Amino acid sequence: MAVPCHETAAWRALARHYQEEMAEFDIACGFADDPGRLAALSQQAPHVFADLSKNRITPRTEQLLTGLAQECGLAARRDQMFAGAPINTSEERAAMHWLLRMPRDGGLLRERAMEPAVRQALAAVHDTLDAMLALAEQVRARPDITDIVNIGIGGSHLGPEVVVNALEDWCGPDKRFHFVSNVDGHELGHVLSRVRPESTLFLVASKSFTTAETMLNAHSARSWFLANGGSEDGGCAISEHFIALTSNVAAAAQFGIRRTLGFWDWVGGRYSLWSAIGLPIAIAVGAAHFRALLAGAHAMDAHFVTAPLARNLPVRLGLLDIWYRNFHGFGSRCIAPYSHGLRRLTAYLQQLEMESNGKRVDAQGRPVAVATSAVVWGEPGTNGQHAFFQMLHQGPDVIPVEFIAMRGGGKYLGAHQHSLLINAVAQAQALMVGRRQETSEKYCPGNRPSSFLLLQQLDPASLGALIALYEHRVFVTGAIWGINSFDQWGVELGKHLARDLTERQERGDWQDVDASTAGLMRRLIAADLP
Fold this sequence. Notes:
Elements: H1 9-22, H2 27-33, H3 37-40, E1 42-45, E2 48-51, H4 59-71, H5 74-82, H6 116-140, E3 147-151, H7 155-166, E4 176-180, H8 185-192, E5 200-205, H9 212-227, H10 238-241, E6 242-245, H11 249-255, E7 259-261, H12 279-285, H13 287-306, H14 313-328, E8 332-337, H15 345-357, E9 375-378, H16 389-394, E10 401-406, H17 416-433, E11 450-455, H18 460-481, H19 489-507, H20 515-525
Parallel strand pairs: 3-4, 3-5, 5-6, 6-7, 8-9, 8-10, 10-11
Antiparallel strand pairs: 1-2, 2-11
C-alpha cells in the first residue's frame, strides 16, 4: 500500500524549504538575485511555451518537488495509465483517453511496447474514428442542414462546446452550432425557437442513453420535432435528423435513431471530446482539422511520457499546484485566457479538475490528510480586468493566476491582438511588482504569483496540445495525492437523490425525509402556496 504523500521524506523537505526559505520569498527580488531565473523556470513544450518565472518558486523548489514526484511513484503511475492498467480502481476501468488520439501505428510512442489488448483497442478506435469522420463529412456536404444541436451534459457538452468555440476561425460559414445541457427548459426552448425541423440535426450524446438531464432534453426535442412537421418515418424522419453518440444502440433504436456512434467504458466523460462525442467538432472543422486536433494532443501525450520529470511541462505545472495548495494554502486558481475563442475554457477546466480531484479519500479509501483540488475560476481577459482583477491585485487573499495567450490573433481585426497581448503581459507584471511606493487605497502589495502559457495561434493542433496538457496536469496532482482522478461518486449521489425524490413525489411519501427537503417539495407541488 502506497505511503501517503504527506508522510514522505520529500514532503518534509518541502515543508522545511517553505518555512526556512520561501514563506517570505519575493518574486521580483528573485529576478534580481538570479539572472538565469527566466531560463530555468520556463520551457517550450509541444505547441505551448510556459513562463513559470513569476511564481513563488526557485530552481531549488522545483528540485524538491521533483523529488516528491519520484518518491510518490508518479512515473510508474503514469506508465500504468499508458499501459492500459485499470487505474480507475473504484470502477475497475482503464483510463485510455490518450489512445483516442494515438495514430494507428503508435505515432510518437510507436517504440513503446503495447499490450495486445491495447493494440486491439487502438484498431477499434481508428475504425470508429474513420466512421465518425466520414459521417461528419457527409453532414458537412449537406446544404439543407443548417443547424446542429448537441444535447449532452458534463464532458459530453463542455468538451465539444469549448473546442467548437475555440476553433471558430476554422469552421465553415454554412452551419450554426448549438449546445444544450441544462434541464431548465429555457435553454432548449430558445434554441428550438431559432431552428426548423427540416434543416436541423440533433446529436444526442450519452454513453448509456439513460443520463437523466440529456434524455429529458432529447425527448423534448423529439416531441418538438414531431409536432412541427417531422415524422417517425418519411421525408423528414427522426432517423435522418437525430444521431446518437452512445454505446446503448438498443435504447437509441427505441427512441427512433438508426445512426449511432459508440465509445468504450474506458472513456471518461470529461476526457471524451476525442471520441465519437467529438462529432460536432468534426462537423464544424472537418476531418483534416479534427485529425490535427488529435495530433496536437498526441504530441503532448508523448512529451508527458518521455520527457524527464524535471523538464516535463504537465509535471511541472501539477507540482506547482501541489506547492500552492498544500504548502502555501492557496485555495483557488484563476484562469485568464486572453482569447475570445477560449471563453468557455474555464468552465471546461472546472469540470476537468474539480470533478477529477475534488476528493476526500485516496484510492485505498483512506481519508486524505491534505487539501486536494483548488477552486478553478476565471473569465477571458480583458473583461476580467474590469471585474475581479481588483481583488487579485489588492484583495487580502493571494490567488495564483494563469494567463493564456496567442501570438497570432486569427482572421478578424488582427491589429487588436497587440493591445490584447500587452494587457496580458502588463497584468502579469503588475501582479508581481505591485505599487509599493503608494500609501492607503493606491497601495498594491505585489508578489502575486502567475504563470503564462503562450501559443503561436489558436489552431486545432495547439488547442489539442493545450487541453491534453491540462488533462495530464490534473493526473499529476491526483497521483501525488494518491486519489482516483477518474470517478465521480459525489455527482452520482445527487442523481440518486433526485430519482428518489421523483419517486416519493409520485407516491406522496415524505416519511424519513428531512423537514427542509420535504417542506420544499410540498411547496413545489402545492398549487395554493405563494
